Amino acid sequence: MLIRLGFEIDITCMAPVPLLLALSTHSTTQGRFIGEDFVRVPPGCDYRLYTDKFGNQITRMTAPVGATRLWSDCVIEIDGLPDPKVPDARQLPIPELPDEVLQYLVPSRYCDSDNLSDLAWAQFARFPEGWERVQAITAFVNRRVTFGYQFGRADKTASEVHREKTGVCRDFAHLSIALCRAMNIPARYCSGYLGDIGVPYSGAGDFCAWYEVYLGGQWYTFDARYNVPRTGRILMVRGSDAADVAMITSFGTHELTYFRVWTNQIEDGLSDSAIFEMLQARPLGEPLVFPSSARAV
Predict the structure, then answer these.
(1) Number of H helices and number of E strands within the chain?
(2) Which among 9, 171, 203, 290 is least surrounded, fewest beta carbons within 10 Å?
């Protein structure tokens, strides 16, 4: 499967502002890139890349005074398989967990699992440990929380999501993670590209959050917002929660003035040269041009 992915983000600064940008695909992303996957910055802006402790690829730069456009646009070839379902994946006892997994059992800034422990055990103890219990948590969050961009706010914790019953995709993930951790299931936050591939069109493109749990010795993807396996998921960042993987971390004031994300399947069989030509065929800020079989997000 060939997927075109990218973004355009405009910000305005009244003074130079140092930025950390979590806007590249993850260092473990599987697939063949056609074109270049990195954050483009205006000419003359110094920047450099580093990989953080979670394997996230971070762009470090200082935005100048005035308007700054950040963008990326490329194509990735991936296997096109949906999220795997492994019903017999078992929950490992804590003594069997690898050292590096233990950090995903404890409360974090947005995943206040200590405040949800009584709820989690009362609600989910009747489900068998392992995949079935995690699926029960995912389905519970999917039913309980109503999605809406108007419900998002930067300081909302998992327990507040449970109480308010509203949120954006990161809130679905935070509540699911907190409930898993409350039941000794390692869980971590993820975000990336997820277009409307194989599902009805849902509106303008955006980045999407989901979560992973550690079962049977490996990590598996769960998504409480949709609660169905999805195709074309492309990981950008992982962390304990959204505090570890903010899209833009700024050390100063900036105004977001433009935001667009695309994740679109394009027709199979295109040559690399045809794809390169497609990537170069439009000026930034103009509508994307896709082969006839593609559907814009």
Answers:
(1) 5, 14
(2) 203
The pLDDT mean for the chain works out to 92
What span, in angstroms and rounded, lies between the C-alpha atoms of 174 and 124? Answer: 17
Stated as kind and residue range, the H or E segment containing 119 is: helix 117-124
> Helices 169-182 and 117-124, interaxial angle, to 10°?
80
Q: Is 248 exposed, middle or buried (0-12, 13-18, 19+ CB in 10 A)?
A: middle
Beta bridge partners of 49: 59
pLDDT band at 286 (very low <50, low <70, confident <90, very high): low
Cβ atoms < 10 Å from Cβ of 271: 9
Burial 215-243 (b: 16+ CB within 10 A, else e): beeebbbbbbbbeeebbbbbbbbbbbbbe
Q: Contact at 8 Å (CB) between 156 and 162?
A: no
Sequential DSSP letters for 27-50: TT--SEEES--S-B--TT--EEEE
Residue whose structure tokens are 């951790």 = 181
Question: How many CB atoms are closer than 10 A to CB 72?
Answer: 20
**Radius of gyration over alpha carbons of the chain, in Å?**
20
SS percent in the chain: helix, strand, coil, step 5: 25, 30, 45
What is the C-alpha separation between 72 and 57, in angstroms, rounded? Answer: 14
CA distances 158 to 111, 120, 161, 222, Å, are 5, 12, 5, 16
pTM: 0.92
DSSP code for 283: -
